[in-house]
Every structure is written in C-alpha cells, then in structure tokens.
Specification:
Shape: globular
Distance between the termini: 12 Å
Protein name: ABC transporter permease
Order of helices and strands: HHHHHHHHHHHHH
Radius of gyration: 24 Å
Number of strands: 0
Transmembrane segments: 97-122, 134-157, 177-197, 238-260, 280-306
CATH superfamily of the largest domain: MetI-like
Domain ABC transmembrane type-1: 95-303
Strand content: under 5%
Number of domains: 2
Helix content: over 70%
CATH topology of the largest domain: MetI-like fold
Number of helices: 13
CATH class of the largest domain: Mainly Alpha
Membrane topology: Multi-pass membrane protein
CATH architecture of the largest domain: Orthogonal Bundle
Keywords: Cell membrane, Membrane, Transmembrane, Transmembrane helix, Transport
Length: 313
C-alpha cells in the first residue's frame, strides 16, 4: 500500500509541474505583450516599456520561467500585474467561495446520484428510470448558463426563496451562506447527478447479473445484503465519474460565478484572462491542478480500499 501511495504522489507532482510549465509558455505565447491590456490603448511606448521593466517582462522567457517556478515551489506565485497585490492572497480570498459551491454541488450529486442510480438499478424500466433517461437528454442539451438563469428567475425572483446574486461568508451568517450557495450548487450539480446515476445504474445492472450474485441469493442472503454487495462492486465506476465531475465542476464554476455574481476563482480567472494578467492565471492553474491531484489521490485510495486489484495495477 505504501508503494501505491508513493507512486500516486510522484505522478501528482509530475502532473503539477508539466501542467503549470505548459500553461506558462502557452500564456506568454497567447498574451504576447500584456502592457496594452494592462495600460489601455492610450498608453505611450515609454509607459509600456516602463511597465515591461517593472513586471520583468523584458527579461528572456526562460529566465522568467525559472524565476516563477522557483518561487512557486515555495508557494509564492508573485504579484498581480493589474494591482500589484500578491497573487496568493487574492486566490486565498476567493478559493473558499468556489470550494463552497463546488463541494456542495458534489455532495448533492453524490447523494442524489447514488439514490437515483440504485432505484433505477433495482427497478430498470420503472418510472424513475424513464425520468432519468429523459433528464439526461434534456440537461445535456441545455446550456449551463441558461439553467442558471432559469433557477434565478424561478426561485430567486418569483418565489424569493434564495438571493439572486451575491455571496455571504459563513462567519457572517451560516444561514445566509447556505442560501447564497444553494442555487449555484444546484445549477452545477444537475448534470453531475444524471451522469452519476446513469453510471451507477449501468454498473448495478451489470453486476446484478453475475454468477456470484445469484450464488448469494441461492444461499438465502437478504435482499438488503445482496444489494450492498452489488453496490460495492458497482461503485468504482461511479466513484471515478464523481471525481471527474469534481474537476469538471471547478471549470463550470466560471459560468455559475458570473451568473450569480460570486467572488470566486472563476470570476478571477475571467478578469485575469481579459487583461492578460499572467501571474494570476498561473497561480490559478497551479491551485486548480493541486485540487485535481488531491481528488485523484483520494479517489485512488478509496478505489484501492474498495477493490484491492486496483493497488496491484
């Protein structure tokens, strides 16, 4: 098990270095000279040259890369080119907002997805199963921002159950915090619920037809215990989808945060992309990859516990 953990940690570190390095060079290639976006079109060549020297953009690219990488390894992502504030502090202020929404959406997707998947697996072709198939077609055909706008119109404007926009910190009001993340979390989780439910349903039906399940029934085990065995054998694929959904929800948070006016890393990514603030983009990339590595590492540990054959592979 120790070897299994060490391999996953090493692969995670390599992934972090490769992705952030690739993002560094791609960002510099795509942005080009960032001074125009930072100063505006009215800036003079002298002002642009002074800003390039101030942010170190006039140095060779490899020198800039090594300077950024060596500092990022210690947790220092530099300063923003827009407001010259530490990138790490700006991200730290916004990460709790995004994580609140994404974790809540993931929990909703896990609970409801498993519940619906088990019901559909136990009663294929039933009412819930048919509703799931219809929902999978409808939700994947609709744009995410449209779903968010519909939720705002119904539950925030017409029914006034939740606030339409804004974010309340939990240290100010736990109730206000829950109400402020409710609609964004529901909007993010709908597609994930359907995907997890479908994956679990398919795995459930596949496992339920195997010989060992018929043997368990022949031995007189109760339906609840048989269902537990089937669910444990069908869960790895659903867990993998759940982990992928978490990563996907981090990306989907950009749209949701714009619609609901949430001060998370999604809105920060948008503003940094518009003006070419490369240090902020690189810091956001590194933090996102760290989350991805942690989630995949935890997923591997859970899969290794559920199915020991995973550790052998």
């Amino acid at each position: 098990m120790l070897t299994f953990i060490v391999k996953r940690l090493v692969s995670g570190i390599l992934l972090l270095v490769l992705v952030t390095s690739g993002t560094f060079f791609l960002a510099h290639t795509a942005v080009g000279d960032p001074t125009a976006g930072l100063l505006g079109n009215s800036a003079t060549p002298a002002q642009q040259a002074a800003l390039r020297a101030q942010i170190g953009y006039d140095r060779p690219l490899l020198v800039q890369f090594w300077d950024w990488l060596s500092h990022a390894a210690t947790g220092d992502f530099g300063t923003s080119w827009r407001n010259f504030q530490p990138v790490g502090e700006q991200i730290a202020l916004r990460v709790p907002v995004t994580l609140s929404v994404v974790i809540a959406a993931t929990l909703l997707a896990a609970i409801l997805g498993v519940l619906v998947g088990v019901i559909c697996g136990l009663r294929p072709g039933g009412v819930v199963d048919r509703v799931l198939k219809l929902a999978s077609v409808v939700l994947f055909a609709l744009p995410g921002f449209w779903v968010s706008l519909v939720l705002v119109t119904w539950f925030a404007i017409q029914l006034q159950w939740f606030p339409a926009v804004g974010y309340v910190s939990p240290d100010q009001s736990v109730t206000g915090w829950l109400r402020s993340i409710a609609l964004p979390s529901i909007s993010l989780s709908l597609g994930a619920i359907v995907m997890i439910a479908e994956q679990l349903r398919n795995g459930f039906l596949q496992v339920a037809n195997q010989d060992f399940v018929r043997t368990l029934r022949a031995r007189g085990l109760s339906s609840r215990r048989v269902t537990t065995h089937v669910l444990r054998n069908a869960s790895p694929s659903a867990l993998t989808v759940l982990a992928l959904m978490f990563v996907g929800l981090l990306g989907g948070a950009v749209v949701v945060e714009i619609v609901f006016n949430l001060p998370g890393i999604g809105s920060l990514t948008q503003s940094a992309s518009q003006i070419g603030d490369i240090p902020v983009l690189l810091g956001l990339t590194a933090v996102t990859v760290v989350f991805v590595v942690i989630v995949n590492f935890l997923l591997d540990l859970v899969l290794g516990w559920v199915n020991p054959k995973v550790r052998d592979r």
